[in-house]
Design goal:
single chain; 432 residues; alpha+beta; 7-stranded antiparallel beta sheet; 5-stranded mixed beta sheet; 38% helix
């Protein structure tokens, strides 16, 4: 299991200059390697083979490029191999429908990290303080707020400079033990959860909990003020640089608060449950909408699901993403699908009269045979789809006839798409 530990570095002013020197040398090497790579015909081989062909030129480059001799060997090699990673990242974005271009030269502000691979780094103690010893660089004080287990081997260390000027070190391990997942048949209903994310309420789950969205209004107002101040300064001046630093700090504060919120929420679900089902949202399409795109970006739903996925893997919890279409339209109580516009935030079923919040109705619908039917006013749409996707058996009774929908003040009867549910008969028995 791939895992990374991230720690804050505390370099001195002299060490900062040295780190920036190594970072910029890697940037220039990357730009040179990219030019050489683009001159190699595609017919020569795969992307990996062509990048390796450029990497093999490093020995000859050191004969006339003196700065390369200051870099540790694996750092220079990693800077060249970064071309392959960048091409793969662009291909993934293109596969998701994004309009991407080609790789370009990196400006000093765009290239912010370099990597030691396999060797050239180690922890050490100096004057009672933990330091990170880096070959051909220096010994940098580091804040280790947690220990890396002895049984885990660090494969590489990436040093990164944030826009605020802070330096961090990320230690990647590949041999972290992944705990086994429990059998699906052995998981109790109380250990399963479905999660529906939203704007007004960040998350509704199948236990009836509604998590409030993170309020970042004050931080956004502060950021806008600093951005206005920055726009009034002469570009490149000392005052401009000070305000740029302030803007970067405001961005970082928002980022940290958001990620802290998402880390804690995803960690809760991954540890408290043995099966987690979420919607596989197409955020790209939502961002292209002229309405509410700012709140969609701020919600960071993709980040939440990414964090939740790897935490579930780390905790031995089943994780499944389901198709979100129709989860808010299907009645949680009787299964009737009701077409309603997005601005209608409540659910009122024309068939059975069940009323609930739209998102709560979407997330709480369970159709497991002999479990919880009629016990909770809401069932579990998202969780039900997740169980179907994992192959867990549902009730196979044939659909039963139901009375015609009567309509409500919110949704007229003619908007009902599916007047019936295969589970109505057992729900009726359970409620008697």
């Amino acid at each position: 299991m791939h895992y990374a530990y991230r720690f804050r570095l505390k370099p001195t002013a002299e060490q900062r200059e040295l780190l920036d020197y190594h970072r910029d040398t890697c940037r220039q090497l990357y730009n040179h390697a990219l030019t050489e790579f683009e001159q190699i015909p595609e017919s020569v081989g795969t992307i990996n083979q062509r990048v390796r062909q450029v990497r093999d030129q490093l020995t000859d480059l050191k004969d006339w490029w003196d700065e390369l001799n200051d870099l540790y060997s694996t750092v220079a090699q990693a800077a060249v191999m970064r071309i392959e990673d960048s091409i793969k990242a662009l291909s993934e974005l293109k596969g998701k429908g994004y309009n991407v271009g080609s790789l370009n030269w990196k400006a000093p502000t765009d290239f912010r990290s370099f990597t030691y691979v396999q060797s050239g780094f180690e922890f050490d103690k100096k004057n009672g303080q933990t330091v990170l010893s880096l070959s051909k660089l220096t010994e940098i004080p580091i804040e280790c707020h947690r220990d890396i287990p002895d049984e885990e081997t660090v494969k590489e260390v990436t040093l990164k400079k944030e826009p605020t000027g802070e330096w961090y070190a990320s230690f990647a391990v590949d041999d972290k033990v992944e705990p086994p997942k429990p059998s699906l048949e052995e998981i109790d209903d109380d250990d399963m959860v479905g999660i529906d994310v939203g704007i007004l309420k960040y998350a509704h789950d199948t236990d009836g909990a509604a998590v409030e969205s993170l309020d970042l209004s004050e931080e956004r107002d502060k950021l806008e003020r600093e951005q206005r101040n920055l726009s009034r300064k002469e570009h490149g001046s000392n005052n401009w640089e000070k305000k740029r630093q302030r803007v970067a700090e405001c961005h970082q504060q928002i980022k940290r608060k958001r990620r802290d919120f998402l880390h804690k929420l995803s960690n809760y679900y991954a540890r408290e449950y043995e099966l987690v089902a979420v919607e596989n949202l197409d955020v790209k399409e939502m961002l292209e909408s002229p309405r509410n795109s700012r709140n969609t970006v701020s919600a960071a739903w993709n980040t939440f699901t990414d964090l939740l996925e790897y935490k579930c893997k780390r905790e031995g919890t089943h994780f499944v993403e389901v198709e979100p279409a129709g989860t808010t339209k299907e009645c949680a109580n009787c299964g009737v699908e009701t077409d309603k516009p997005l601005w209608v935030r409540g659910h009122s079923c024309p068939a059975c009269g069940f009323e609930a919040d739209r998102d709560a109705n979407a997330v709480v619908r369970l159709r497991l045979t002999g479990s919880k039917r009629g016990a909770f006013a809401t069932a579990w749409n998202i969780l039900s789809r997740g169980l179907s996707q994992l192959g867990v058996g549902h009730s196979e009774e044939t659909p039963v006839e139901t009375a015609l929908p009567t309509g409500t003040a919110v949704v007229p009867a003619k908007r009902v798409v599916e007047p019936g549910s295969p589970c109505l008969k057992e729900r009726a028995k359970a409620s008697e």
